[in-house]
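Forum > Structural Biology > Help requests

Title: Can anyone predict the 3D structure of Cytochrome?

Hi all, first post here. I have the sequence for Cytochrome but no way to get a structure on my laptop. I'd be grateful if someone could post the structure tokens.
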Amino acid sequence: MRRFIVGVMGQGEGADEPALAQARELGALIAGEGWIVLSGGRDSGVMRAVNQGAKQIPGSLTLGILPSSVVAPSPDIDIVVVTDMHNARNNINVLSSDVVVACGPAGAGTASEIALALKAEKPVILLSPDAEAKALFLKLGQGRVYISDTPVETIAVIKTLVTI
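Reply #1:
Sure, ran it for you. Structure tokens for Cytochrome below:
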């Protein structure tokens, strides 16, 4: 049986501490459910934090989709996939995920992943989005965008969306 994959997207450089703390907690909660954590794989920001959180859970599995061979992966990644596709790897991130969670304020890379997820008809959960991102993606999402305020609430939303 294939394991469920939760893609967690968020800022690398410039991620604020509340987003990082939520990403760490979210990573642990995802791993605690026995789900795979997929991220952009870099050793920065939300990508680093979600994997740090996941690795607090014995038996967790983390998957990092790296943009190029010259980018250092997060040390908490179990499986590193080097694409050498740079930003085009966002499509791999999204299409390989069963659900996409955008953690914290959305930078351009995260916004592109949210948009790709919507085009692929994947459910998207915005965890603590700013007002502008919330308004934009709710409008574009046509009922496939959900809002959560906490990592615990995010897990509850995922459970309502899918049969695992």
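The longest helix spans residues 17-32. The chain has a mean pLDDT of 94.
Shout if anything looks off.
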